[in-house]
Specification:
By secondary structure, the protein is an alpha+beta fold. The chain folds into 3 domains: about 220 residues, 4-Layer Sandwich (Glutamine Phosphoribosylpyrophosphate, subunit 1, domain 1), CATH 3.60.20.10; about 190 residues, HUPs (Rossmann fold), CATH 3.40.50.620; about 160 residues, no CATH class. It is built from 25 helices and 17 strands. The strands form 3 sheets. A 6-stranded antiparallel sheet has the order 2-3-1-9-8-10. A hairpin with a 5-residue loop joins strand 4 and strand 5. Helix 6 packs across helix 7 and helix 18 crosses helix 19.
């Protein structure tokens, strides 16, 4: 994996050097800089060498110097594309660089090259003849791309910290970005925490015209749920067989590497399935699998990972960690976090990446399956939520919320009281708000108090509303799937994975997000994803020949740490509120008091605020 940076306009060579250095952990193996001072064009690249180690240096140029590129990612079908391009007369210099494949793909197919790619990417390609910079981000946003645009400057980078290392970029907090952060627990694209700095959304390309300084955005792909019209006579077996074949091929593509490779193994369905196919491909005893175990039982899954590793006969690596050690790392991780995002599983993910990187440079994981196959607990709540919403009078609803609020607060991982209170919180609003509010650090009323002004629900939750209303299927399962796949996956899960892995220069790959597999899964009707209280119904059925029943049908456990307990006992010190956020100190004081006395569970809010304040207080520039 790599880091890219660049700008066209004001600035000099020192700016691109600082930008490159700010994201050095993304590419510790090499760095490259190119510039044309007369045109004000600067490109930078940090390299983590994975493929064609001797021949894949960047910025990379075509032989005639007409096209240059900086690229972060992996193109899994690069061999097939290379062969096709050779037959069309393209001459390659490198042995098997996927970066060079991108250059020749652009020469032949132009801006349409993205439709031919199977992989993860963020790149910026300079076309001298057309005097444009063509940028693109992969279909799900696995690789980050931040940019800013003003009359005298277009600049981009893989990390927000790298972008703001440019001397003329003086960021200020975005008020709406801040509200969305506390409304979602992350900041959905195209927003960022700063004014006039944006994320290129997943599935989008951007063309910057150097001559007139204008940009054009184009959505080249969108995840859309379009169920099959024709259902086979035996859909479970027919679709199950196809699903196994597609997943097997997706894993095989992602095992191609010139450096050591392994898989994450939690003992859950998704990572176990990926590990099973990887073990088959590599042979008995040749796959390295990785997991971490925690001493506190409600947060530990190591027994399941060990069981699967024995079943698959992998070379399993388990590192036991005390929660005390994990807690000690919190401040340093928060300081290194590029843009704040409040998923507390960032901490164990960081630790797992750190552990795996001692042995391998590339790891495969099971991410994406929960979003595609309705794997989360809220899917089980939808039926009852709809009944409650239809039949429960609002005054009675409020009374029930008050009664439930008196339930004792537990800081166990995904405790019952936590789930009940979260569900009831969302049911005060229309169904389009349920999913984000169920997962939010703060309820809308609390957001009013935090910012000392009424929030505009439609503005703050505009992305969730758009996904709900834009789903072509008129059922709760598909509409909720669309939210998870298009928002939560891109701006929470994949962001967390990118940041945690890149802090350790580890490349992560997600077979479940293979485009061929996704194009199949998005056409499976909702009743085969969630059925009679069973999440991931078809996925589990399809994996019957692959994995033991006790793994396929065990209760799901999140990958978490006891942040609620840490805040209650004062083990994490809240830094002073960053002045530029304009957050009400009285609200924080009350939230801390309510949490420590167990009057309310404010773990999500406190964690989000802790990450935000820690990051801002350590920002290298003045904002």
């Amino acid at each position: 994996m790599c880091g890219i940076a660049g700008f066209i306009g004001v600035g000099d060579i020192e700016d691109i050097r600082r930008m490159n250095l700010a994201q050095a952990s993304r590419g510790p193996d090499a760095d490259g800089i190119w510039n044309d001072q007369s045109k004000g064009i600067y490109l930078g690249h940090r390299r983590l060498s994975i493929l064609d180690i001797s021949g894949g240096s960047q910025p990379m140029w075509t032989v005639d110097g007409a096209l240059g590129i900086v690229f972060n990612g992996e193109i899994y079908n690069h061999v097939e594309l290379r062969n096709e391009l050779k037959q069309m007369g393209q001459v390659f210099v490198s042995d098997h660089s996927d970066t060079e494949v991108l250059l020749h793909s652009y020469k032949v197919w132009g801006l349409a090259l993205t439709s031919r790619l199977n992989g993860m990417w963020a790149f910026a390609l300079f076309d001298r003849d057309k005097n444009i910079v063509f940028c693109s981000r992969d279909r799900f946003g696995k690789k980050p791309f931040y940019y800013t645009h003003r009359p005298d400057l277009f600049a981009f980078a893989s990390e927000l910290t790298a972008l703001t290392a440019h001397s003329s970029i003086k960021p200020s907090i975005s008020r709406i970005g801040l509200k969305k952060y506390f409304a979602y627990g992350y900041i959905p694209a195209p927003n960022s925490i700063y004014e006039n700095i944006f994320k290129l959304p997943a599935g989008y390309s951007l063309c910057f015209h150097i001559d007139n300084g204008q940009i054009e955005l184009e959505q080249y792909w969108e995840f859309v749920i379009e169920p099959f019209e024709a259902i086979p006579s035996d859909p479970v077996n027919t679709w199950g067989a196809e699903l196994r074949d597609l997943l097997g091929r997706a894993v095989k593509r992602r095992l191609v590497s010139d450096v050591p490779i392994g898989t994450f193994l939690s003992g859950g369905i998704d990572s176990s399935a990926v590990s099973a196919y990887a073990a088959r491909e590599l042979g008995e005893g040749k796959l390295n699998t990785f997991s971490i175990g925690f001493e506190e039982s409600s947060f530990d899954e190591s027994q399941y990972a060990n069981s699967v590793a024995r079943y698959l006969k992998t070379n399993h690596h388990l590192e036991w960690l005390s929660l005390e050690k994990a807690k000690e790392l919190v401040p340093s991780i928060a300081t290194r976090l590029d843009e704040p995002m409040g998923d507390s599983s960032l901490l164990p993910t960081y630790l797992l990446c750190e552990f795996a990187r001692k042995h391998v440079t590339v790891a495969l994981g099971g991410d994406g399956a929960d979003e595609l196959f309705a794997g989360y607990d809220p899917f089980r709540a939808l039926k009852w939520a709809k009944m409650y919403d239809d039949w429960m009078p609002k005054p009675v609803h409020q009374a029930i919320k008050l009664i439930i609020a008196r339930l004792p607060v537990s800081h166990r991982n995904m405790s019952l009281d936590f789930k009940i209170k979260r569900i009831l919180r969302g049911l005060s609003f229309a169904p389009c708000y349920w999913s984000p509010i169920w997962m939010a650090p703060l309820a809308p009323g609390e957001l009013d108090e935090l910012f000392q002004e009424p929030i505009d629900l439609e503005e703050v939750y505009s992305e969730a509303i758009a996904q709900w209303e834009g789903c072509p299927q008129d059922n709760l399962i598909d509409k909720t799937l669309q939210f998870y796949t298009k928002l939560y996956l891109q701006d929470d899960i994949l962001t967390k994975l990118d940041r945690a892995s890149m802090m350790h220069s580890l490349e992560l790959r997600a077979p479940f997000l293979d485009i061929e597999l996704v194009d199949f899964v998005r056409r499976i009707p909702a009743e085969y994803k969630y059925r009679n209280g069973e999440t991931k119904y078809l996925l589990k059925k399809s994996l019957d020949p692959i994995l033991p029943q006790e793994i396929l049908y065990r209760a799901k456990k999140g990958f978490g740490v006891p942040i609620g307990k840490w805040f209650q006992e004062g083990d994490i010190s809240m830094p002073g509120i960053a002045e530029q956020t304009s957050i009400d100190p009285a609200f924080l004081k009350q939230a801390l008091e309510d949490h420590r006395t167990k009057k309310a569970d404010q773990r999500a809010f406190l964690w989000n605020l802790f990450l935000l304040n820690t990051r801002l207080s350590n920002q290298h520039d003045s904002i």
